């Protein structure tokens, strides 16, 4: 099965546009050099497209020999033009491509318990190895990938790694995914479904979490993704639900099997009337649509006792175990 370009960390390309007689003349003179270095993709009188491997040299050269204010550039995958100085952070974040290309993802897992204190599931979390073997924070890696348009490839890598890890665990597994990273469920999720089948893992063991704070604007697209999962026997959850979560009517359209109360409303809930109000609101909404309510970030016994008494059915947090590498 061939890969779509979004799933592969191909070298980025930059469009560069110049104005002014001086810049145009200089651009014309350096085109043969860029071509000889195999970094030139295309060129015309006032613009060119080059591979990222040529960008650092071009920026250094332009600072000495061109009028910086009359140059703008953008990724070929973007519509937004930027100044050369605004491109530098993208170049600085190029290390994330190697993480994706080399598959340097380390799966961790954290237990999810039921109200009787029995193991119900594990959430599989992704950690990332730097070149020197140390771990980079997920926030740092995902931020770098997003800035470079690599979110699609990174999300797929994490999802496939998590599916493989599920074969080493005895329980259900919760796996995060970013809905905005999926162009077409039929194409982008086929490999996920195929891998689960290849490993002989029942679809009902998987719960795919969609993070509501990803600000999914295309609800119909999200529904197509979730329908694709549901029709193949998988379950799904809304993650990090808080005070601003969707209306019951919207939840009824999405039909999540699980709803996870954001840890910000879990920690200290036993002593906070405001947090209790949010927790009970989520609980009522879950009950109305037949979803299982789950509280994440449980650390204090008094918060656990309040949530369990209120009616929450599943619990996750340091009180039950910290994330640890998946063994095997």
TrEMBL record:
* This protein's name: EAL domain-containing protein (Putative c-di-GMP-specific phosphodiesterase class I)
Q: Which Pfam families match?
A: EAL
Q: Which GO terms describe its molecular function?
A: cyclic-guanylate-specific phosphodiesterase activity
Residue ranges occupied by any EAL domain in the UniProt entry: 88-328
**Highest taxon of the lineage:** Bacteria
